[in-house]
Specification:
The chain contains eleven helices and twelve strands. By secondary structure, the chain is of the alpha/beta class. It has an eight-stranded mixed sheet, sandwiched between helices. A four-stranded mixed sheet has the order 3-2-5-6.
């Protein structure tokens, strides 16, 4: 079982020229859906309210065969509202509730059979829930591969020093880290994104990957560094591309049988050739996602049955 813990929310788009639109979103939830579409049993640990938006999230998870162990709670479902101006520019407002009281007493059951635990984004930085996420990661570390994506949101977590400290707590526990070049440049403006990735590898990670948009992904492991390529594609929008990349990156490592704490040393010995294959697979997933509207990750058949 692959477990993802983090936020889900509704992206609400408002404008003066079109009817309101609502889409299920949230980076960790997108990763869980991406993993399930690639044929991996996945569960999503997050919160949503007992309201229309919460039911929309529940249906989306069911439609994608993602297990959801927690029931809706009494708080409203989190919403990110984008208000479009006549030129198409957007201003954002967030109504976020991030707390996971149901974790208390249930963490052992959640981790039973889990070989990989992924988290990141708002869930790993926004209080009070971030502290509960960290506790679950610490509990999972002896059992499972840990993966982390900071997926920074400077409009929500505005203090870069605070965000850097929070990110480094998770990096210290992580085996696999993926970050965009923009994330790393915001967290560490005094050095390049690639130097920051190398520094994170030195803190104990087995693999650190940097996504760079059309420049393609780059990765570093103990065996060396790999400069990947972004497949040529027609871009509709980039929503969810990083999450699709993350899901396919993790799915590829599972396909290589490198998940689970008992395989931690094997993961540390990942070869440059294996890393090249993994990056290419993840980049293909991101390319499919940007070729169509919204956070719509590919299925396994769309990427091919093999790496």
């Amino acid at each position: 079982m692959l477990t993802v813990i983090g936020e889900t929310l509704i992206d609400e788009v408002l404008s003066d020229t079109a009817s309101p639109r609502a889409h299920v979103g949230g980076s960790p939830m997108n990763v869980a859906v991406g993993l399930a579409r690639l044929g991996h049993p996945a569960q999503f640990v997050g919160r949503f309210g007992n309201d229309d938006y919460g039911r929309l999230i529940q249906q989306h998870l069911r439609d994608n065969s993602v297990l959801s162990p927690f029931s809706p709670d009494a708080h409203p479902t989190s919403v990110a509202t984008a208000r479009l101006n006549p030129a198409g520019g957007a201003s954002y407002e967030f109504q976020l509730v991030w707390d996971l009281p149901e974790l208390h007493g249930h963490s052992t059951d959640l981790l039973n059979g889990t070989t990989l635990l992924h988290t990141g984004s708002i869930a790993a930085m926004l209080t009070p829930g971030a502290a509960e996420v960290l506790k679950l990661v610490e509990q999972a570390h002896p059992l499972a591969t840990i993966s982390y994506d900071p997926n920074c949101r400077p409009t929500i977590i505005r203090d870069a020093d605070f965000a850097r400290t929070a990110a480094e707590r998770f990096v210290a526990l992580a085996d696999v880290v993926k970050a965009s070049d923009e994330d790393l440049e915001w967290l560490y403006p005094e050095r390049s994104a690639l130097d920051s990735a190398r520094a994170w590898l030195a803190q104990g990670c087995s693999l650190v990957v940097v996504t760079r948009g059309s420049k393609g992904p780059w990765g570093v492991c103990a065996a060396g560094e790999v400069d990947g390529k972004a497949p040529a594609t027609s871009v509709v929008d980039t929503v969810g591309a990083g999450d699709s990349f993350m899901a396919a990156l993790l799915g590829a490592l599972v396909d290589l049988e490198l998940d689970g704490a008992h395989r931690r040393e094997e993961l540390r010995r990942i070869t440059q050739q294996q890393l090249t294959t993994v990056l290419a697979y993840a980049a293909r997933a991101a390319a499919v996602t940007v070729s169509r509207a919204g956070a719509n990750p590919p299925t396994r058949s769309e990427l091919g049955e093999h790496l």
